[in-house]
Write a structure and sequence with these properties.
The complex is a heterodimer of chains A (1101) and B (496). With 1101 residues, chain A is α/β, with parallel strands linked by helices. Chain A contains 37 helices and 40 strands. In chain A, the strands form 13 sheets. Chain A has a seven-stranded mixed sheet with strand order 5-4-16-15-14-6-7. A six-stranded mixed barrel of chain A has the order 19-24-21-23-22-25. In chain A, strands 11-10-9-12 form a four-stranded parallel sheet. The longest helix of chain A is centred in the N-terminal third of the chain and has 20 residues. The chains are: A alpha/beta (1101), B mainly alpha (496).
C-alpha cells in the first residue's frame, strides 16, 4: 500500500508534521533499509496511525495500570492537551502529611503519572529533616491494599455512594438536639475536625463525643494538664539534654513522634570531634526496646516495681518536702536497684538544667506527675529540655464511659469514625460481643478502612436474633486520597493533600462529620480551606504557599508559660499504690506493648510492615510471648541449649492466664528482659482482616482490661503440647568476637580516636595481582566516585530505611514461610548483635545494630565469579547488577562476604504467596477458569494474582526501577535511578556548559532512599572525590572503618564506630569498663589488637 | 632360578624343557583357570546376547521409573522456580552442586583406569576398563544435568557458552563456573570418544556373532567396517595411545577445575589452595568406590568371576586405601591451616561449624554443637576410617565386605561434598547471616532420580555392548604373549 510522495515545495524544506517527514523518499528509503519487515507499518498512514494509537494506549496503561479510570477523564487518553507542568515519566512531588494520634509526620509524596509511589519526609518542615518512621514509609502500600473496604453497605447490602450520603444527611435530620447520639473516634490533631465537631455540637448540643486509642500515648499530656492547670503537651528537646533518663519510655520506638525524637537524640550523639560532647542515656524498662538498646546504662525492672523505681529516683532528685513519707513508702521495694538509681540520679542532678527525665506512656498518671516534678527539680522545664505546648482541650470522653452509656440505654445512634473497637477495646467492655452491648442502639454508622472485626461484629449478630441495628458501613479514604489538616509534634499546621482521587470513592472523617452537621458544603477541600481561612488568614497566596510548602510557616507552638501546681502534687501522689511484691514464676507480670511494625494493629494488612523484622527480636509476620532466658528456663518452656540456634526450630506454645482470660502464643526468649515478665505485642491475631494479616500471631487484646491497659500482674503460664513456627531474619545473637560493629567507651575513644581501625584483622600482604582489577584504571574516567558512610553512633535501629528501600526499589514481600527459609528480599537489613558478660551473658546484654547493605566493593568478589557478566563495575564505583543478563547461578551471593545479595527464588511479584510451590503446569492451578500456564502463554505480562490484587499492586511500583522476575539476583544499587535522574537534571540544566558534575555544595547530589528516610541522619552518601562532601568528611573521621577489611574488598561503604558514654559511677561500669562485646573479641582476636591502656580490672579507672 | 638351563650341545639341539617358575614368583593370571580365547568371546559377548535375565528386567523397570521421577522433578523445577529446593540465605548452593561434584568425581575412575593405567602398562585394567568408562560417561551425564538446572533461569543457561550473539556479550572468563563448562564438556567428549574407540573391535565381534539382520546392521554400522587387519590394529593402537595421553591430562584437570569453583572464592572452607589435588584424589577414591559397587555384584550375576578375578578386586581395594589416605591427609591439613592461618571465621567454621559434635568436642570446648556435625563425622567415618580396613587381606578378599565398604565410600564422598558446599556457606563471616539448610523432598527425589538415569543407561550398556574389552582381555592372557616362557599361543599356553 504505497502512496505517492508529496511534492516538495521549493526553498528550505520545513516539515509540518512527522507524517510529512515520513513521506519523503529519503525517509522511505531509510525505513526500507532499516526495518525491512516493519516498513509497511511506518509507510502506510493508516496502519501507522493505528500502531501509534495502540502504542500510546498501552504505554499509558503500562504506566498507569488501572489508574486510568482514577485520573480526571480529560487527562487520560490521549494527552491531546498536556496538563500544565506535566512531563510524562517525570515524577511530581506534593507536600502532605500522615496523621498520627496527636500529631503528624510531614511528608513529600512522589507521584508517578498520577499515582503516589513513594513517601518521603518533608525536609522543609521546621521540625523535620526529611526523615520519617517506618509507618509513614509503608503507608503508600496501604493505599493500594486490595483488601480495603470498597463498598457502601446498608445492613449488609451494597448501595451507591450517593444513596449512602443522602441517607446520612437524612439520618442527621433525625438527631434533634443530639440526645442519644454518640460519636466514637480516634485521636486526631486536625483543626478541621475540631471545628466540625463544634459545628455538630452547636446543632445537636447533647451529642456526646468519645475517643478511644487502644495504645494511648498521651499519658504525659494528661498528667501535665493536671499539673500545670492548663491543656499542655510535653515536647522534648532531646538534643539539648546531656543526661537523659527514660523511665519505661521507648521514645526511639513506640512513643509518639519517634522520628522527631530520633532526630533530636541523634544530634546529641553526633560526636562532633574527639572532644565533642555526647549525651548519656539511662533507660529503665521491662522489655528490651530500641531505647534500651541505645542506652548507655539500662536497668531491667519488672512492671510491678516500676513505680517503686520511679519513686526511688524521685527521692534522690526532688528536694525534701511533705512527699518524703509517701515516696519512701512507694519506693520500699526498689531496694535491689539502689546502687543503680543513686549514681544515676546523682549524675542527673549534677547536670541539672541539661538533664531530662522522660516518662513512658505506660506509667500510671501519678507516676507521670512524679516525673514532671523531677523535671521541674532538674531545671528541665526552666532550661527547655522539655517544653510544654498548649493544645486544644480534649472534649471527648473515654470508651469505658461509652460502654456504660450503651448499657444504660442512653445511646440510640452510634457513629464510629475509624478505629476498630470490636477488636481492640478492653476485653471487659465486651465490645467484641456486640449483642451484649446493644441495648437501645438503633443505628450504627461506621466509617472504616477495612471490613474488619467491628464491621463484621455489627453485622454478624443478626443471625443470632439479637436486636438488629440499622447499620451503615462506609469505606474510608486513605490519607493520600484525602483533604485534611493536622498538626505536627511542634504544633505546626500542616495540610493533608490528596495525591489521587479516592480509589474506591471512600469518604473522609471530615466529610462524614460535615454531612452529619448538615454543613453548607461537605466537600473536604472546602472544609479545610475554610479552616485555614480561620487559622492562616484569607489570603489565597498564603493558602497556596501552605499547600506548596506543606506547613504554615510560623504556626509552630511557642513554649507555654507553665507553673507547677505543687498543691495538687501530694494528693495525686497519694493515689499511687505502693507495689506489694515482685513477680515470680507463679505470678508473672505482663506488659502490653505497641508493636514496632503494626502499631496497635492498624497496619495489620500491610505486607511491608508485616515482613519488616522487628528491630529487636527480628521476628516477622508474628508476635510472640517474650520472656527473659531465665524466666523461660524456670518455666521450662525453652531449652537453654537451643537459645543460640533457634533458627527454624518450632517454638513452644504456652497459654497465658490472666484474671480468668487466656491467650495462647509461641514463646520467644528475649535476652535483656526483666525476669518474670512477659511482653505481649498488640495488633496481631486479627480474625477479620485482609489476605496479608490473616493468621499472623495471637491477639493480646483478649487479656487487656480497662484497669490494666499496659501492665498487669499475677499472670500464669500453662504449658501446651503445641508448637508453632516463628520466622526470624536473624537467628544468631553474638558477633563471635569478630567485631563487624566496633564500639568503645567515650574515655577510650578520647585516648584512641582511631580505635576502630586497630580492631581489624591483619591485612594479608598485598601481592601484585596476576589479573589487575580493571576498575583501578576505569575509575579515572568516572565523573564521580560514589561512596557511603553510616554512623553507628547515630543509627538507632528504627528500620525506617528498610521500608523506604522496599518502597523505592520495588522489593517484593515473600511471606512468612519464605522468611522462615531465609529468602527475605530486603536490600538493606539491620543486623542486631547482643553481647553479654558474666555467668549468664544473655540475662542483661548490650546490643548493637548495624545497617548492612551492598558495600559496593572496589574489588568486588561477586563480580569475578559471575560467568555471564551480570554483575559488573561502572566507572563511578557502583557495583551494578544487570538483571537482564543474570541467569541465576547464585555464585555471586556465595562469594559475597557480607551476604547482601538477594535471590528471587520464585516469581514473588506475579504469583500469590500462598501458591508459590504450586507449579504453573499443575492443571489444578486454575484462575478465572484458565490454566495458569495458558494464561501466561497468552499474556506473559499478566500476573497470576487475583485480578484486583494484580491491578492494585502494580500501582505501587516505582516506574524507575525494574521489577525483577524469578531466578534473578538483586541487591542494593545505591539508588542508581536517583543518581541517573540527578545526572539527567544536571545535564539539562548545564545546556552548553560543561558543568554536569553533581556537587553536594550545589545541592545536586541525590539522596538514596535509606538516607532520605533516616531521621537520625546516620547515612551519608555522595561523591568521595569531592573533598568537602559530607561523606568524604565522614570517611576522614578517625572512627571510620571497613567491615571485613582484611579481605581487601575495598568497600565503598564504611562505618563510623559506635561510642558508648557510660558513667564510671554506675555499678555495671565497675563490673565492666569496656563494652561487653570486647569479651568475645579478646577471646577470638587476642588482646594486642586493641591497646586500651589499662586492662579492665574490677573497679579500675 | 637355582638351576641353569643346560647349555645347548654343539651337534644336536636337545629338546627344550621349560620348567614352571616357582609358585611364589608366579603372578596370578588375569584370567583365571587358563580360559581360552574362544571361551572369552563367548562369555563376554554372551552377556549382550539372548534374552535378558529376570533381574535385569526388574532393575531396568525400577531404573526407568526413577529416571522418570528425575525428569518430572526437573519439569516442576523449571516451571516453578529454584525455590522448590531447600536453598535460602546464605546457603545458595545445596544438593544440586553437591550432586554435581559427586557425580563428576565418580566419573573419574573410568578414564583413570583406561588412560593412566594404560600408560603405566597396568594390564589388569583390561577386565574392568570398559565398564568403568561406561560408568564415567553416564556419571558425567548425571552430573551435567545439575549445573544446567540449578540456575535460576535455566532457559538462558546457554549464555554460559561462548556463542556469538546479538548482545555482543561474551561469558566472563574470570569465573570458575565458566572454566567448569569447558572442563566438563571437554572431559565428556574425550571420554566418550575414547570409550567408543576402544569399543570398535568388540563391536566388530558382536557384528560377526550377530544372528539377526537388525543386529548385524546396527553393530556393523558402529563397527565402522573393522576387519581386524594389521593396518586397522596399527591405527587403532596409535589412536588409543594418543587419546590415552589426552585423557590423562583431563583426569587431572577436570576435578581440579571443579575444585576451583570453591577455592577461587573468599569463603572460609572454600578458599583453600589444597583443593585441586585433594579433589582429584577424592574423585579417584569415589570413582573406584563406585566401580567396586558395580562390579562386585555384576561379576557374580554375570558369572564373570574368572575374568574379573579376586585379584582385580583386591587391586582396586588398594587404590581405595591409597586415595582414601590422601583424602584423610587433606582433611587433616585443612584443619591445621584453619588453626595456623589465624582467620577467626575459618577457625570457627572448622571447629564450631563442622567438627564440634554434641558428645565430646562441644562438651570439651563448652560450645554449642556444630549444626552439621553429623555430616562431618559421617564423612570422616566413611572416607578416613573405612579405607583403612583395606590394609587387611581378609577384608580385600571378602566380596560382601568389599561391596559394603565400597558403598560406604560412596556415601562418605557424597557427604564430603555436602560438607564443603553447605557447611562452608552456612556460617561465614558475619554472624548475622548465618542460616541453616535443609533439603526438600524435591532435592532428595531429584538426587535419587539421577540414579535412575545412571542405571538405565548402565543396564542398556550391559545389554548392547560387551562390558569387558574382549580384544584387550585376550591380549593379556598368557597364550597371547608369544614370548611367554611357557610358550605362548603355540602350546596353548599351558604349563607342562
Amino acid at each position: 500500500m504505497k502512496i505517492p510522495p508529496t511534492p516538495q515545495p521549493a526553498g528550505p524544506a520545513y516539515w509540518r508534521s512527522l507524517d510529512e517527514l515520513a513521506d519523503t523518499p529519503e525517509f522511505r528509503q531509510w525505513v526500507q533499509n532499516e526495518f525491512p519487515s516493519g516498513a509497511g507499518e511506518f509507510l502506510d498512514p493508516v496502519t501507522r496511525r493505528h500502531f501509534v494509537k495502540i502504542m500510546s494506549a498501552s504505554f499509558l496503561l503500562a504506566g498507569l495500570g488501572a489508574t486510568g479510570c482514577r485520573r480526571p477523564s480529560e487527562n487520560i487518553y490521549p494527552f491531546a492537551k498536556m496538563p500544565e507542568n506535566y512531563v510524562h515519566g517525570v515524577p511530581q512531588f506534593f507536600a502532605t502529611a500522615m496523621p498520627s494520634r496527636r500529631a503528624a509526620v510531614p511528608l513529600v509524596v512522589k507521584s508517578s503519572d498520577g499515582r503516589p509511589t513513594k513517601v518521603e519526609g518533608n525536609p522543609d518542615h521546621p521540625d523535620s529533616n526529611g526523615g520519617t518512621d517506618a509507618f509513614a514509609q509503608a503507608s503508600v502500600l496501604s493505599l493500594y491494599d486490595p483488601d480495603r473496604a470498597k463498598d457502601y453497605r446498608r445492613n449488609g447490602s451494597t448501595i451507591t455512594k450517593a444513596a449512602a450520603v443522602d441517607a446520612l444527611a437524612e439520618l442527621a435530620g433525625t438527631f434533634g438536639n443530639g440526645d442519644g447520639v454518640a460519636f466514637l473516634m480516634e485521636q486526631s490533631s486536625s483543626a478541621s475536625r475540631a471545628r466540625l465537631q463544634r459545628v455538630v455540637s452547636e446543632k445537636h448540643p447533647n451529642a456526646r463525643w468519645f475517643v478511644y486509642e487502644p495504645v494511648d500515648l498521651d499519658a504525659a499530656r494528661y498528667a501535665a494538664s493536671v499539673a500545670y492547670g492548663k491543656s499542655v503537651a510535653p515536647y522534648y528537646n532531646l538534643d539539648k539534654a546531656e543526661k537523659i533518663l527514660a523511665l519505661d519510655c521507648d521514645f526511639i520506638g513506640s512513643e509518639e513522634n519517634a522520628a522527631v525524637n530520633i532526630r533530636r537524640f541523634a544530634q546529641g550523639r553526633r560526636m562532633a570531634g574527639r572532644d565533642g560532647a555526647m549525651s548519656r542515656l539511662y533507660a529503665v524498662e521491662s522489655l528490651f526496646t530500641l531505647t534500651g538498646m541505645n542506652a548507655d546504662h539500662r536497668l531491667r525492672v519488672p512492671p510491678s516495681l516500676m513505680v517503686a523505681v520511679v519513686a526511688r529516683m524521685a527521692r534522690e532528685i526532688l528536694p525534701s518536702g511533705e512527699w518524703n513519707a509517701k515516696l519512701k513508702e512507694l519506693s520500699a521495694l526498689a531496694q535491689p536497684y539502689e546502687d543503680w538509681i543513686v549514681p544515676c540520679a546523682k549524675d542527673l542532678v549534677a547536670s541539672a538544667g541539661k538533664s531530662l527525665v522522660m516518662p513512658g506512656y505506660r506509667l500510671p498518671p501519678a507516676a507521670q506527675m512524679l516525673v514532671l516534678a523531677m523535671n521541674e527539680a532538674l531545671g528541665a522545664v526552666a532550661e527547655h529540655t522539655v517544653e510544654f505546648h498548649e493544645v486544644p482541650k480534649a472534649v471527648e470522653e473515654d470508651i469505658a464511659v461509652l460502654a456504660e452509656a450503651i448499657k444504660a440505654g442512653k445511646v440510640q445512634t452510634l457513629v464510629i469514625l475509624g478505629g476498630n473497637p470490636a477488636y481492640n477495646a478492653p476485653a471487659d467492655l465486651s465490645w467484641g460481643l456486640w449483642g451484649k452491648m446493644m441495648g437501645a442502639i438503633k443505628t450504627v454508622v461506621r466509617l472504616g478502612y477495612h471490613e474488619d472485626e467491628t464491621a463484621w461484629v455489627v453485622g454478624g449478630v443478626n443471625a443470632q436474633g439479637v436486636h438488629e441495628p440499622l447499620q451503615w458501613d462506609l469505606p474510608m479514604a486513605h490519607f493520600l486520597e484525602s483533604w485534611g489538616d493536622t498538626r505536627t509534634a511542634n504544633g505546626s499546621l500542616v495540610p493533608i493533600q490528596p495525591l489521587i482521587e479516592p480509589l474506591f470513592d471512600g469518604l473522609t472523617e471530615l466529610e462524614v462529620l460535615a454531612i452529619l452537621a448538615g454543613a453548607a458544603t461537605t466537600k473536604p477541600y472546602e472544609i479545610v480551606r475554610e479552616t485555614f481561612r480561620l487559622l492562616g488568614g484569607p489570603d489565597e497566596n498564603d493558602w497556596r504557599k501552605f499547600l506548596r510548602d506543606g506547613f504554615l510557616a510560623g504556626s509552630a507552638a511557642e513554649p507555654a508559660k507553665v507553673e507547677f501546681n505543687g498543691k495538687l502534687f501530694v494528693p495525686v501522689l497519694e493515689l499511687l499504690k505502693a507495689p506489694t511484691g515482685a513477680p515470680g514464676p507463679g505470678n508473672l507480670d505482663v506488659v502490653f506493648h505497641r508493636d514496632y511494625k503494626l502499631d496497635d494493629g492498624r497496619h495489620n494488612n500491610n505486607g511491608w510492615l508485616q515482613e519488616l523484622p522487628d528491630p529487636i527480636t527480628k521476628l516477622t509476620w508474628d508476635n510472640a510471648i517474650l520472656m527473659s532466658p531465665k524466666t523461660a528456663q524456670e518455666l521450662g518452656v525453652a531449652q537453654p541449649s537451643k537459645l543460640d540456634q533457634t533458627q527454624r526450630f518450632y517454638d513452644q506454645v504456652v497459654e497465658i492466664q490472666l484474671g480468668g482470660r487466656t491467650v495462647r502464643g509461641p514463646v520467644w526468649v528475649q535476652p535483656g528482659m526483666a525476669d518474670y515478665t512477659v511482653g505481649l505485642a498488640l495488633g496481631y491475631g486479627r480474625e477479620k482482616t485482609g489476605r496479608i494479616g490473616r493468621d499472623c500471631g495471637y491477639n493480646a487484646y483478649k487479656l487487656r482490661t480497662k484497669d490494666a491497659m499496659h501492665y498487669a500482674s499475677n499472670a500464669r503460664v500453662a504449658h501446651t503440647t503445641l508448637k508453632y513456627q516463628l520466622s526470624t531474619t536473624q537467628s544468631h545473637w553474638s558477633m563471635e568476637g569478630r567485631a563487624p560493629v566496633r564500639e568503645a567507651n567515650l574515655e577510650d575513644f578520647r585516648q584512641q580516636p582511631d580505635f576502630a581501625r586497630k580492631m581489624s584483622l591483619e591485612k594479608p600482604p598485598l601481592v601484585e595481582p596476576m589479573y589487575p582489577n580493571p576498575f583501578d584504571t576505569a575509575q579515572a574516567n568516572g565523573l564521580h566516585q560514589w561512596g557511603m558512610a553510616i554512623d553507628l553512633n547515630k543509627c538507632v535501629g528504627c528500620s525506617a530505611c528498610m521500608v523506604a528501600c522496599q518502597s523505592e526499589n520495588n522489593i517484593p514481600i515473600v511471606g512468612k514461610e519464605m522468611v522462615g527459609k531465609s529468602r527475605e528480599m530486603h536490600w538493606i537489613r539491620i543486623d542486631r548483635y547482643y553481647s553479654g558478660v558474666g555467668q549468664n551473658p544473655q540475662d542483661d546484654p548490650q546490643a548493637v545494630v548495624q545497617p548492612m547493605l551492598c558495600q559496593h566493593c572496589e574489588a568486588a568478589p561477586c563480580e569475578n565469579v559471575c560467568p555471564v557478566n551480570a554483575t559488573t563495575h561502572d566507572d563511578e564505583g557502583l557495583n551494578v547488577m544487570v538483571y537482564n543478563r543474570c541467569v541465576g547461578t547464585r555464585y555471586c551471593s556465595n562469594n559475597c562476604p557480607y551476604k547482601v545479595r538477594r535471590f528471587n527464588y520464585f516469581d514473588y511479584n506475579r504469583r500469590p504467596l500462598d501458591k508459590l510451590y504450586q507449579s504453573p503446569l499443575d492443571p489444578r492451578n486454575q484462575k478465572d477458569g484458565k490454566w495458569e500456564l495458558l494464561r501466561w502463554w497468552n499474556n506473559p505480562d499478566k500476573g497470576n494474582l487475583p485480578e484486583d490484587q494484580w491491578q492494585l499492586i502494580r500501582m505501587v511500583k516505582n516506574p524507575d526501577v525494574t521489577v525483577r522476575m524469578r531466578g534473578v539476583m538483586e541487591k542494593c544499587t545505591f539508588c542508581l535511578q536517583r543518581i541517573e535522574q540527578a545526572k539527567i537534571a544536571a545535564k539539562v540544566k548545564a545546556r552548553d556548559s560543561n558543568h554536569i558534575q553533581l556537587l553536594e555544595r550545589e545541592g545536586t547530589i541525590p539522596r538514596t532512599a535509606c538516607q532520605q528516610a533516616c531521621p537520625a541522619e546516620a547515612i551519608a552518601f555522595g561523591d568521595i572525590t569531592d573533598p568537602i562532601s559530607t561523606v568524604s568528611q565522614w570517611k576522614k573521621n578517625p572512627r571510620n572503618y571497613k567491615v571485613l577489611d582484611f579481605l581487601n574488598t575495598k568497600p565503598r561503604l564504611t562505618y563510623l564506630a559506635k561510642v558508648r558514654n557510660p558513667n564510671p559511677e554506675m555499678p555495671d561500669y565497675k563490673r565492666h569498663a569496656t563494652p561487653y562485646s570486647y569479651d568475645d573479641y579478646f577471646k577470638t582476636m587476642g588482646r594486642p589488637a586493641l591497646e586500651t591502656g589499662e586492662p579492665p580490672e574490677e573497679g579500675a579507672r | 632360578m637355582t638351576e641353569a638351563s643346560p647349555m645347548p650341545a654343539m651337534s644336536r639341539t636337545p629338546p627344550l624343557v621349560v620348567r614352571a617358575p616357582p609358585a611364589e614368583l608366579e603372578r596370578e593370571p588375569l584370567v583365571a583357570n587358563g580360559r581360552g580365547i574362544g571361551w572369552l568371546s563367548d562369555t563376554i559377548a554372551g552377556v549382550a546376547e539372548g534374552s535378558p535375565p529376570a533381574w535385569w528386567k526388574w532393575c531396568f523397570a525400577i531404573s526407568v521409573t526413577m529416571m522418570t521421577v528425575c525428569f518430572l522433578c526437573v519439569l516442576y523445577l523449571m516451571s516453578t522456580g529454584v525455590g522448590i529446593w531447600g536453598l535460602g540465605h546464605p546457603v545458595m548452593w545445596g544438593f544440586a552442586i553437591v550432586n554435581f561434584v559427586w557425580w563428576i568425581g565418580i566419573g573419574h575412575a573410568g578414564t583413570l583406569i583406561s588412560a593412566i593405567l594404560f600408560l603405566l602398562r597396568q594390564k589388569w585394567r583390561t577386565s574392568i576398563n570398559r565398564a568403568a568408562e561406561a560408568m564415567t560417561i553416564f556419571a558425567v551425564m548425571c552430573a551435567g544435568i545439575f549445573p544446567l538446572i540449578h540456575v535460576g533461569r535455566m532457559w538462558y543457561g546457554y549464555w554460559l557458552f561462548p556463542i556469538p550473539n546479538s548482545y555482543r556479550l561474551w561469558p566472563q572468563f574470570r569465573s570458575p563456573l565458566m572454566w567448569d563448562v569447558f572442563a566438563v564438556s571437554t572431559y565428556f567428549t574425550v571420554s566418550a570418544l575414547f570409550w567408543y574407540m576402544g569399543l570398535i573391535p568388540d563391536l566388530a565381534v558382536m557384528r560377526d556373532r550377530a544372528k539377526t539382520k537388525m543386529r548385524k546392521f546396527g553393530y556393523g554400522l558402529f563397527a565402522m567396517g573393522w576387519t581386524g587387519s594389521n593396518r586397522h590394529w596399527s591405527n587403532y593402537e596409535k589412536a588409543y595411545l594418543i587419546l590415552a595421553g589426552l585423557s590423562t591430562v583431563l583426569v587431572l584437570s577436570v576435578h581440579s577445575i571443579v575444585s576451583l569453583d570453591f577455592s577461587v572464592s573468599q569463603l572460609p572452607g572454600w578458599h583453600t589452595t589444597i583443593f585441586p589435588p585433594y579433589f582429584v584424589a577424592g574423585a579417584v577414591f569415589s570413582g573406584f568406590g563406585m566401580v567396586l559397587t558395580l562390579l562386585v555384584p555384576l561379576r557374580r550375576l554375570l558369572k564373570l568371576e574368572e575374568i574379573i578375578t579376586a585379584r582385580h578386586i583386591e587391586l582396586m581395594c588398594k587404590v581405595l586405601l591409597l586415595t582414601g589416605s590422601i583424602v584423610g591427609y587433606a582433611y587433616a591439613m585443612e584443619f591445621f591451616i584453619a588453626w595456623y592461618g589465624g582467620n577467626p571465621a575459618e577457625k570457627h567454621l572448622f571447629l564450631n561449624g563442622r567438627a564440634a559434635d554434641p558428645f565430646v568436642i562441644s562438651k570439651l570446648l563448652h560450645t554449642n554443637p556444630a549444626p552439621y556435625w553429623w555430616a562431618y563425622w559421617t564423612m570422616i567415618g566413611c572416607n578416613v576410617i573405612v579405607p583403612q580396613f583395606f590394609w587387611f587381606k581378609k577384608v580385600r578378599a571378602s566380596m560382601i565386605t568389599v561391596f559394603v565398604l565400597s558403598i560406604l565410600v560412596n556415601i562418605g564422598m557424597w557427604f564430603e561434598r555436602f560438607v564443603i558446599v553447605v557447611t562452608s556457606l552456612h556460617q561465614d563471616f558475619l554472624p548475622s547471616n548465618w542460616g541453616y539448610y535443609r533439603p526438600t523432598w524435591v532435592d532428595i527425589l531429584q538426587f535419587l532420580g539421577t540414579f535412575g538415569l545412571f542405571f538405565t543407561f548402565f543396564l542398556l550398556f550391559l545389554r548392547f555392548v560387551p562390558l569387558i574389552a574382549i580384544a584387550e582381555v585376550k591380549g593379556v592372557t598368557p597364550q597371547a604373549d608369544p614370548h611367554h616362557p611357557l610358550g605362548g599361543a603355540k602350546t596353548g599356553g599351558r604349563h607342562s
